[in-house]
Amino acid sequence: MMEDPSSKQEITRVLKVLEALKQASHELHTLPSTNVIESDSIKALLELETESDTFLSKDPRLSTLSQQLTKLKSLVDTLQKSCGHGLGSFLTRRFLIQSISRVAGSIESEIQAWIDRESIESLIKGLNEPLQTEEDDLVSLLSQFEGRVSQGFSRELQDLVLKSKIFCLLERVLCNPNCSKKVREQCAFVVSALIRFNKDVFAGQVLMGPLIHGLVSMTSLESMKVLCSLIKSIKSPLVDEIESNGEIPKIISFLDYKDLQWRIVAMDCILEIGYFGRKEAIEAMLTEGLIMKLVELQRSELCGDLIDTGMSDDEKDRSRGENKFSESHPFASCVARFAVQLEVGEGLRQREKRAFKQEILKRVREACVSDAEAATIVAEVLWGSSP
Asked: Are residues 211 and 190 in contact, defined by beta-carbon separation less than 8 angstroms?
């Protein structure tokens, strides 16, 4: 997608001026009242007000901002002329200072709204033509939008996002195998940010569309990390969708990858599913031979010795030692860790937890190569699952 260079330069120049205006407005809005007249923020705003006249008059969406800047200049002029020492003059100055602070806050909000509109419009253009847009440009736009959404909730921004239907575009690009993995991963990051921004509004769109399949089929470490974060946010309803869409076998299969990071991320995802999963999801994991795979991982050279489940006298040193051990032995006691997730999790009823505990113990005995190994892992499961 080619863009007129002169138009792009003009937008960049406008953005630069508006960002400076926004920063000055923010500083003025939070400035102690006694410093208003002599503040650098006031001087910067008044200088930028003159510079911005040219482009403010061209964009009707900036008319309110233009009016606010004019109002600010008028209030500052009035304040500078208010030099009496009586009670009336004091009260007038206090009123003017508070008015200047309010106007500065309005200017900051107006500028942010304009920047949000421009950035979303640019992002929509890129998402509508992802194969014709430079990869780095689109990734940059997505990253900037992710950063903006991550700043916290804003009703005005939410309205813009909903009206633009940008979530559907993100989903379409994320699920398009013809798009670059880098772009698709960045779309996944934005989706995760939108869920943190307002889960109540955007979780339904995650559950109703093909996004879950897109994340799993991407076969990307980053997409799996996003899936884990979505499970933590949306909880059991998302695990229900993962199970009903038949994605659990694929997730379990990642434990067979040679790459260690892949197996660690897969393990994290499995633990989250175990915590929030209902009966059907847990059954699906066990049917895929999860316990056998976990026993093999626990036995592997990556695990080494099992984590000592006893408590020492020096708890703090012990805790630090366990953290270091866990980093170098990511699958130590992984069977017990999975059993604990089921035991303390939110997805199962108490009788289902008891039944799955017995099923796990049975499968452990079947998977172990010796009585000693079986006895050790069974003891871990029984000890780790105790309240």
From this structure: no
